Amino acid sequence: MTHILLLGSGGQVGWELQRSLAVLGRVTALDHDSTQHCGDFANPEGVRETVRALRPDVIVNAAAHTAVDKAEGEPELARLLNATTPGVLAEEAARSGAWLVHYSTDYVFDGSGSRPWTEADVPAPLSVYGATKLEGEQLIEASGCRHLILRTSWVYAARGGNFAKTMLRLGSERERLTVIDDQWGAPTGADLLADVTAHAIRHLQARPEDGGLYHCVAGGETNWHSYAKYVLAQAQQAPAAIKIKATEVAPVPTSAFPTPARRPHNSRLDTRQLQATFGLQLPPWQQGVARMLAEIL
Ligand SMILES: NC(=O)C1=CN([C@@H]2O[C@H](COP(=O)(O)OP(=O)(O)OC[C@H]3O[C@@H](n4cnc5c(N)ncnc54)[C@H](OP(=O)(O)O)[C@@H]3O)[C@@H](O)[C@H]2O)C=CC1
Ligand SMILES: Cc1cn([C@H]2C[C@H](O)[C@@H](COP(=O)(O)OP(=O)(O)O[C@H]3O[C@@H](C)C(=O)[C@@H](O)[C@H]3O)O2)c(=O)[nH]c1=O
To answer: What is the ipTM of this complex?
Structure first.
């Protein structure tokens, strides 16, 4: 029976993975404070010992430093969590022959142009988060381990913190919101990512040559402003679990909403390679967002 070690099991993606991976075999799920098995990514050697002790067939890493603005002020910690420890996981996977599944981000790109980025495009991150995530990818690729890296964007889930939930909170507190309308991408459900991951692991067990780096986001595109409007409109139509106070959602350019980290204008990711290789069709982003809102409202 396949033994899967899931790291970061309490995060948005990790939580959904617990459900999706269960059908594939035995899952050992560890989170940040799983002291018993030492799952703290700030301690790479502890994580190495954990992997050696558990001897998984597949390591799925959903742990990361995802606080994009905070990472600008703590680059060493971001690097440990997003690069050094994933690099250790890759070394251990190479040593034992295990598969490593890992997640990366649209923020590895500089956001120039308007064409969706392909896997062949050259990354040029604008932020500490993006740079450390890119270094994580590179360490995994250089290790020679069997791996699957899914680059995704704008992840949301019913559980955990995300942009959609921030908009619901702000929309219930304020009459006017200002939201950037010149950063483009696709909101992607953690449940979709988890289901794609399970499907891909099964596929790779039969066709290991298909491992590598792929872009995985929901279909279509939007910007943060249109996404916020969509979320608030759905909430207003829902049977009153939340009272939306906001009457105006003003579109603003990036320059009018300064943040510590720079973010890409063009976060569109081209998913054709993933869909063709794994025989998948990715649903439009609105479908998953509506499902998530129906769950939480
Ligand atoms: N969120 C997004 O919009 C996007 C995410 N991604 C990538 O997808 C993956 C999953 O992201 P997502 O689920 O949204 O992230 P979350 O922030 O929801 O979850 C991150 C997980 O990492 C854990 N973690 C944090 N610090 C440590 C640590 N020191 N040791 C061990 N675990 C730790 C957290 O545990 P705890 O909560 O206990 O601290 C949490 O379980 C990441 O690789 C991320 O870079 C890619 C694109 C977009
Ligand atoms: C709260 C808020 C944000 N914004 C803008 C700022 C930013 O450009 C955009 C999104 O802000 P957030 O801080 O919620 O999201 P951010 O942390 O940038 O989200 C990113 O997280 C990491 C982990 C990823 O990998 C990315 O794919 C992406 O999902 O919305 C507004 O315009 N108005 C607002 O009121």
So the answer is: 0.98
